[in-house]
Write the structure tokens for this entry.
Amino acid sequence: MANPGDQIQLCCFLWAHPGQEAALTAYEDRVLELLPEHGGAVVQRAMSDGAEGRPHEVQLYRFAGQAGLDSYLADPRRTALAEERDRVVARTEVFPVELQPGA
């Protein structure tokens, strides 16, 4: 079992190409289903209207360690969808975060 200190916590902002908001959500539904097989989990997923430059979707997720994140990114089922991703996702920003307990 991974040491809790090895855990990776990430935030992801996703912007859809105009008119592709529903397709972005459908794409994310498909690829996020793969996370548990790689020691990952969605902590929270939120949608926005994308107005005024806001991202369409915000995700918080965690992985048990770097090996799990690497295997998720290389998963052939995910990489096979690269063309679909390029068609629907205009921009992505991913950055590490430290998740805090809720109030």
